[in-house]
Amino acid sequence: MRKSLVWRWAWRELFHGQLWPVVAALALIIACVFALSALAGRIESVLTQQGRSMLAADLVLRSNQPLAPQTLQNFDSIDVERSDQTRFGTMAFSDNEMQLISVKAVESNYPLRGALELESADAMQDSVKPGELWLEERLFTLLDVGLGDKVDVGDLTLTVSGKIISEPELSFNPFSQMPAAMMHLSDVSAAGVVRPGSRVSYRYFFRGDSSDLEAVKTAYTPIDGQRWIDENTGDRTGDMLDRSRGYLSLTVVLVIIMAAATLLLTCQHYVDSRTQTLAMVKSLGAQRSWVRRWLGRQLLMLMLMATVLGLGFGAALEYLLRLPLADVLPSPLPSYGYLPWVLGPMVALLVALPALGIPLIRLIEAPAMSVLQEQSAVRARKNPWSWLLAAVPILALVAWSYDNRLLWLVLAALVVMLSLLAAIGVMVLKVAQKRVKQPAFKLALSRITRNPASSGAQLGALATSFMLLSIIWLLRTDLLDDWQQTLPQNAPNVFALNIAKSELDDYVGRLDANNLERSEAYPIIRGRLVGLNGQRYAELTPDREERDEALRRELNFTWRDTLPTHNEVLEGSWPSDGGVSVESGIAERLGLRLGDELTFNVNSQEFTAEVNSIRDVEWRNMKPNFYFIFDPALVENLPANWLVSFRLEDSQSDILNQLGRDYQTVTLLDLRTMSGRIQVILKQVSLSLSVLAGLAVASGLLLLLTLLRITLAERQREIMLYRTLGASKKRINTTLWAEYGIMALVSGCMAVGGAELAMAGLLKWGVELPVRLHPEVWLSLPTLAVGLVFLTVAWMLRGLLEPLKK
């Protein structure tokens, strides 16, 4: 009977007491974790698939020499699918024309990831067969051939099978491209075009599970001229994927923190309201063990209800969150598995241990005398072990994200900012109190500053909440702005290479006649950096593999009288008197400084140049960029070809074909297909981050509403006291509006400063982007703070002032 009474009372307390906000807070944590982890898992899966599609495999080994047969046998013993590729340049001969082409010789199972689209006379194909030759569109004009015609590649005659529409592999190097063709790998030996001394590259593609791919990498250690590539290191997508994952995990943690704060505030309010009830029960003879059972049953029912509600709402929320992504998510969607169903309740439990445990332990320890003297509750017996509960979620967070620098920067900033903003807020209000004369405002400031610790906590919590909202949205905006520079809307998408000086004016004139947006023309010479301040790099770093990549290969040099418009000089001045301007990245890696003397080798000719300036270069803007730009007087007499880039719309392909016919020695690199794929990835990333940021902002707003609701409820007793002492309803109303208006304005202004400081740290050390100010929040954030607080106060104030009408 006694057990039944305990269950009934616990059930009644859950439904008719003040535990509903606790259930709502726990359900919010579970729902947010479920929805974000499920959606983040799918988004990461999509981003990973995109990255691997751009590689045509899960893992690629790039090599400048073929692998030994024994190595290939070792790969075959591992449960992965492999496809080999050989790349080389050669001459192709038709009946009427000849053309230097870049050939990809692939196997029939290429690609292992992504899609290969080949258009023949009858239908589309997705693989290359022996005896076939597939050409990119320009080669039909350059070789003067059609479908079914014969083209000689070395000693082999191949049939033109059709046109290459698209292929998965992308390249960002515009300086080593020729019109592309594809043939089957088995035909290479018969063609006899790959011989000792030929410039050939080899690629080995692998597809399989993560463990098997790790086994492949373990089975072979790359040597000089070889490199493993995956979706995080291939081309320019690695940074984007890493930063996306960092933002996703950061957003999940911030949502949990804000929901946990909501839970803590709600539970603390519940404990304060139930201390007298428990004291009365204890005074009537209830033992501490009975109180534990009573609270334990409440917690059990509370967790079960929160889990059911949270998982149900989380599943619905995940569905709603991916509606904006319907156009970019694949169909069918990858399953999110069982992890979100387990992770949501687990995180809620970890958060609830200290958030619920510590206040409830204090409630259990409340003495029976609290029913007579509320102050004696403060002298309740303290249980030092209760604070160990706080270590549980902290240790779990460390185990989960110990290597997430972005997350720890934000958490450190939160701890510092909460204390700093609380202290600054109290100081500002005390200074204001001495200067304000209007009675309502003076009473409001007196009310706020009467208890500095409580006021500081409230101001710090409000300012930190607004700061978190700003950080989430500003970081999303800065990331998207940076990624948009990967491929601006008006970025060049065609490069014209190997333009002879005698053809340059005519070629540029043809582009201008067609009203094409183009870059300036740049002379190109190829050479190596071989020495620093009189010492050879071969002597400074004898092991070639340990040298920087820029020291192991030929680089593209140019010369100019003026700074390119899309570069920025960071140090020094533009080169003169035989000087050179150096890109900041390579200068940092090689330790180059202004005044250093560099030795270069071009066409077996060596010369020196003094470093006159260090330049900032944005490599992702698809414009011609260079590590080294020389003073023209130093190198302009060296033989060079010219480069120009321009933008071409999809409907202007006929211009490209005509240029190919009229200037057959000029190599045209068409990047329009690659540009479209990058835009798709950018669209996926931007929509994903916007949706997640929106949910995080909603969680932050809930925290703000909870904080304001609790502080307003605490004012009810004071309102009755003011009324008893003769204060008019109008005076009370004005004082409350003034109090919360001042708190909102001060916290909003402090949040601006805190957000700018936090963003500076995040941009510099978290996501490694240029630090910048955000003037758009300087006015909008305080305005938003005042507006939100006023809306909340207006919503709740009527209930608080209701007793004054009687």
UniProtKB/TrEMBL annotation:
Domain of life: Bacteria
Matches recorded under Pfam families: FtsX
Keyword Cell membrane part of the UniProt annotation: yes
Residue span(s) of domain ABC3 transporter permease C-terminal: 251-364, 691-798
GO CC terms, sorted: plasma membrane
Chief subcellular location: membrane
UniProt KW keywords: Cell membrane, Membrane, Transmembrane, Transmembrane helix
Membrane topology: Multi-pass membrane protein
Subcellular location: Cell membrane
Transmembrane stretches, start-end: 246-266, 299-321, 341-364, 385-402, 408-432, 453-475, 687-708, 740-765, 777-797
Stored InterPro entries: ABC3_permease_C (IPR003838), Membrane_comp_ABC_pdt (IPR038766)
UniProt cross-references to PROSITE patterns, sorted A to Z: PROKAR_LIPOPROTEIN
Protein name (record): FtsX-like permease family protein
Taxonomic source organism: Grimontia sedimenti
Source taxonomy: Bacteria, Pseudomonadati, Pseudomonadota, Gammaproteobacteria, Vibrionales
